Amino acid sequence: MSGYTAHFKVWRGDVSGGGLKDFEVEVNDGEVVLDIIHRLQATQAPDLAVRWNCKAGKCGSCSAEINGRPRLMCMTRMSVFGREETITVTPLRAFPVVRDLVTDVGFNYTKAREVPAFVPPAGVAPGEYRMMQEDVDRSQEFRKCIECFLCQDTCHVVRDHEENKQAFAGPRFLMRVAELDMHPLDAAAEAGLDRKTTAQDEHGLGYCNITKCCTEVCPEGIKITDNALIPLKERAVDRKYDPLVWLGSKIRRRSSAG
Amino acid sequence: MSVVDRQEWDVVVVGAGGAGLRAAIEARERGARTAVICKSLFGKAHTVMAEGGIAAAMANVNSGDNWQVHFRDTMRGGKFLNQWRMAELHAQEAPQRVWELETWGALFDRTKDGRIAQRNFGGHEYPRLAHVGDRTGLELIRTLQQKIVSLQQEDFRETGDYESRLKVFQECTVTRVLKEEGRVCGVFAYERESGRFFVLEAPAVVIATGGIGKSFKVTSNSWEYTGDGHALALLAGAPLLNMEFVQFHPTGMVWPPSVKGILVTESVRGDGGVLRNSDGKRFMFDYIPDVFKDKYAETEEEGDRWYDDPDHNRRPPELLPRDEVARAINAEVKEGRGSPHGGVFLDVSTRMPAEVIKRRLPSMYHQFKELADVDITAEAMEVGPTCHYVMGGVAVESDTAAARGVPGLFAAGEVAGGMHGSNRLGGNSLSDLLVFGRRAGWHAAEYAAGLAGARPVVDDVQIDSAAAEALRPFSAEAETEEPAGGPPENPYTLHQELQQTMNDLVGIIRRAPEMEQALEKLAELRLRARRAGVEGHRQFNPGWHLALDLRNMLLVSECVARAALERTESRGGHTREDHPGMDRAWRRINLLCALTDPTGGLAATDPVRGQIALTRETTEPVRADLLALFDKEELVKYLSEEELYE
Predict the structure, then answer these.
(1) What is the pLDDT of residues B119-135, one digit of tens each?
(2) Collapsing DSSP states into helix, strand and coil, what is residue A53?
(3) Which residue intervals define the domain 2Fe-2S ferredoxin-type in the entry (chain A) (predicted)?
């Protein structure tokens, strides 16, 4: 029940370099890793940089790697570690370091902009949208995403291959494409936009080889691979190899804003 | 000598929560080049924490609902202190604002016939809250964020630049609203990442920074809630209204200590959860105040029947407005009938099957399981009051959201005062953000367009003094000799002392001597805060950021304490042990806070005078057709004799 002293190694530094720094710090009952980082700020390292907001797993700001595993610091309880264990906290590896535990996550905002927005159906006035719960369940699952970017961090397509970042949107934004594609009233197709084809051609769906690493780290428990990426792949494949669908899509396309 | 980067925009929105983003969308759609500045990353604003839903009288679940009923509930919840015109606009426009979100891609939970489902909530006569499980705020923020992206995609197609008409400056903090000849001319800000200063020149500024909860120790609010917008408005010369009204949400987590204060959504009670004390008694039946006596069930049986048959039964008292429930919990704990960790029990486990709980309250299930090792489908939660929301805020014109007395300044959302009176109903916050965010963006854009060709200019002197103010925490540490008055102070320590002071002395139950003591402590902290020193450099330095935020927290804390001491009655989010009754004579009185020194001088040493001057103002009478929505017998409880006969 009572407090104890834990050994922490926290990465400190900036773009020019840095390294792990050792700390001995008090831990109390019920605390999470973020509490300990805050205690370091208040008592030993006032300029230790860290992002956080809600402290309840809802905003997705305090992402870091704890003992090498991508996690939210606010949802990682100290009780999951042994008292003798050294706890190592490092910034997300897939993104450039700004300072200490803060990384430049601009990649994600760039990718978000590349996914065409929801297309409202023509002729349906606000207030007249009718959708059945069972038809929105799947997209709602994806909209639980808190954009912590842990899936983007862990996905080896970008984690180990910086050069893929240009062509690959990452699990979070491929899931966004799937969410819109499964939205019962999205009128992208009517506007000449085939989300299945663009997932493949413009967002790099083909790079994903369904190792499910993204699903494993998702703090919201979203089945990214099984429910978003694999179905999207199946639909994209249908598009590619069904000659009728292919022909239809070629004829109907074009009207979209370029 | 200023080498600060300057950019020109039409409208600058400070804050990127629900109100700020809705304002930015509106301003941009009305043709204004719009910049949004926010302290966190885009999409992380505190709005994501809203759980229960958006109140809007769409009448999807109960066809008896309409804007008049919503207006009535809002006025009752606020104990008639609300700016009635705001409450009217809010109730009328909320449905449109919700439906509009669907056209931007939002996916709310559905009714059986495919419309937006609505749930029950405290103080609302009918099921009224559009929701997505218990993560409605996330849906709201994501939808607005994605709408902004879609506008940027439009601009990209036209201009080749995503940010040509609408740009988000994320992880930046505004420290001053700049003025020229009494009018707004821009903002002074720094980038949190680099510490670099910059100025956005704009004739119209919308403040949408949220609340002040970080001045209290136990709070559901995140680090961003340091009263920045309240302080920016004060410093720019705009008065704050009714700052004594602070909402303590009845149900925050109480254990473990590190999560104390984190919100437990009111939906738990809206969906059937009950409150019990250590004797196992549903104590809320003992706490129904006179003004609500005929509207709430008197027996558990009647309360339980209400969930299935609301037309023939009255609602259970667990669904009283938040101020009532918070006070009741406080009283139970004080009288020794609390739970082991100093709260009371909130139980859904005996009220609903486990799978229903997991479906309707997924994030509560997750939160308790992960953070407290409590399975809410099998055992009761322990909960207690937590500082949640400030009803007081920038005094604004109801229709335009324009701040009083400062042309070009607008405010919307939690930072604006008046809408919720003395107590906000759950669900009325998200709708407030949308209704008044839109109105602020609209009128800011219009105001800016009206000044085309005659815009106020930002002068260098103001920029230099804003820069000097922002850099002071570094010099406190760098001076070899002790700065005047004592050694440098640790900003984290000062912050903790401030939070403890407000929590203990200006908290949920207030007494005059304690508030006087609080004002003295605040005066002391103010002086010490001048010596708040920081180590390191300007690049992403949280100690420095906190040292700057302290100015704002100290200003708003003084407003709260001073107004709370002045109002000698109990009403909504202001409870005086020494003045326990609601006094009808106080209903028409608003307290306005302004800076004592109109030149913007800070840190007055005199605790009696302080930095804040209070004035009383009598509000306009409620319009007759709105009063006619209530029974005479009810109005007698709130309105004074002369108001009734007017």
Answers:
(1) 999 999 999 999 999 89
(2) coil
(3) 6-93
